[in-house]
Amino acid sequence: xxxxxxxxxxxxxxxxxxxxxxxxxxxxxxxxxxxxxxxxxxxxxxxxxxxxxxxxxxxxxxxxxxxxxxxxxxxxxxxxxxxxxxxxxxxxxxxxxxxxxxxxxxxxxxxxxxxxxxxxxxxxxxxxxxxxxxxxxxxxxxxxxxxxxxxxxxxxxxxxxxxxxxxxxxxxxxxxxxxxxxxxxxxxxxxxxxxxxxxxxxxxxxxxxxxxxxxxxxxxxxxxxxxxxxxxxxxxxxxxxxxxxxxxxxxxxxxxxxxxxxxxxxxxxxxxxxxxxxxxxxxxxxxxxxxxxxxxxxxxxxxxxxxxxxxxxxxxxxxxxxxxxxxxxxxxxxxxxxxxxxxxxxxxxxxxxxxxxxxxxxxxxxxxxxxxxxxxxxxxxxxxxxxxxxxxxxxxxxxxxxxxxxxxxxxxxxxxxxxxxxxxxxxxxxxxxxxxxxxxxxxxxxxxxxxxxxxxxxxxxxxxxxxxxxxxxxxxxxxxxxx
Length: 483
Hints:
Strand order of the largest sheet: 13-12-11-7-10-9-8-14-15
Structural class: alpha/beta
CATH architecture of the largest domain: 2-Layer Sandwich
Radius of gyration: 23 Å
Mean pLDDT: 89
Number of domains: 2
Number of strands: 15
Oligomer: single chain
Shape: globular
């Protein structure tokens, strides 16, 4: 192991850091007046850290934090020095001083060195780092915005939720559709009984975050990529192709496949509007591709949800890895695949044929909500929410607007941090539950096609497949244990 061993998060170091923050946490709970965990940075701004500077990090987080909301970017963390350099160049191109931003290749070292000077942490690293980075930040009393899914396994979802209950900080999961009008309006329509009792939903995405075949041959990491902190808490392996910077989504040890990549977006409306809790059963009805180490290239998953809060039992269907062509779009291709490729929503095809002007195949992801009085359609983030067909939507009296309308998910989070309040639109209380529901589909993929799982949510186990416990509670690699 290289010099990063010096920044190893041992139990002693973690507890020492927790003790340093304990006084501030206790004061925040007991001291009268404004919350002491509100902004303490220069000029009343938040001192922010970005963990993960590629993908969403530099394309969304940093532009929002620095460009849109004018907060202080105090430090950046990425094991790839090229990402750190790209972030510094981004700052320089906007006449901001990149030398004022501290750079790290390991977030453990960052927390050790500047943990007491920061106020908010933004996490956009690969999935297997999400929970650990967020747990350390919350234990230190730091506000946390984490990309979806907020964790890599179900136990982490429970740990994050418990930590969020103990720590008086703002938390937010990055499923931006939760603050958009489509899903908010969907809830109001369904709760008003507009389409009656909803008993099934069909959600799809053309993402295919999986693979086939054996692991590629080992090779040296690219120059500037610090492999030890990239691997992090996952089981160690030598670097190979098809991992960095994005392909890690398709490997069990690092990502959560297409469900993890898109489920917290596409299933958000289902989970929220239909008040979904623990399912009683999950089953992979079809699987294409995959291996002992990789997620499938395509699959269909079904969750069975019991009756709850005046709503009947619900079947939630997920279809991933749909085929597309340059000319036909998702549904145009699926017409040709009907009968020989089962990872497609037949109802989508039927409605597309009946209402060709609806363009139901236009987005790469979407959902149909099937009630006994009609069907509602939404796109990936809740967009184009409408009763099918549009004519029926125009004839239906709209329900009153009863839910809050946050401006957007970053504004909502940063405002909460500045005000010292814990409640946000997609806090970890909600985000961990949605994530847990989505990635339970990964367990069905592990078991294989046509094998139902009996989920015992209160006891965190699959009653009829105890061997799945290793995927429910993934062990952390030595040197990456925070407790």
